[in-house]
Amino acid sequence: MRFLTKVQDCGTKANMFKAATANLINKFNVQKNVLYFLIEMGLRRASEAFMGEGYIPTHVLTEIHTSEVYQSLNLRAQVVDAIMATDSAAAIQLIDTYYPELLKKNPIIHMKLLLLELGVLIKSRDTTRAIAFCQGPISSLFVSYPECISELQKYTLLMIAPDPFSARNSHLLCQARLNIVARDVSHDIISFYQPDYVFHEIMDLMRLHSYSKLYGDTSYDSNGEAETGV
């Protein structure tokens, strides 16, 4: 009898856990986190399109619209768009205009942006201009900030490789590299002005989605019992 009671207690606790999870992780919560993820990435058009789908309650949208991270979205999106267009010069100019202290405090960002331009020259097999670019803007940066040279070293093999697309570190020439740098720069801007900001990671969003599929389709009462609607 005691054993059955313990089993029943365990079952009730499990259902109550599911109830708590269902309340915490629901459709709107997942979508809210996805929206924040897009905003943090600096993807303005994607964020606006997602908000326009009508999945998120008005009070949540109001909260998001008044958040500091959302209010910086338009400026960050301009920087992200320049990066995705492989226009490093425009991205650097925008950052200097809107966030004048950022590149001085975080020269690695500056180097990553310059290296995107170097990647364009490597892909076009323009070795002469690539070398000149290394001796010019890139060289002057790592002379002032030696820690940046580690980023440049990743590209050196690509410059001398007969086929840079099959060489080690060839992933640095892929389109995905633009996405990574754009995300990093957008996140760095947020972190610089909001040091305590907690980002919404994609793996966490995937877990939220999985949990919502497990627990979000069933309603539970205050005792942790499934509600059948009967």
Automatic annotation (TrEMBL):
The cross-references to Pfam families, in alphabetical order and at most eight, read: CTLH
Q: Where is the CTLH domain?
A: 72-129
Q: Which SMART domains match?
A: CTLH
Its name, as the record gives it, is Glucose-induced degradation protein 8 homolog (Trinotate prediction)
Lineage of producing organism: Eukaryota, Metazoa, Cnidaria, Myxozoa, Myxosporea
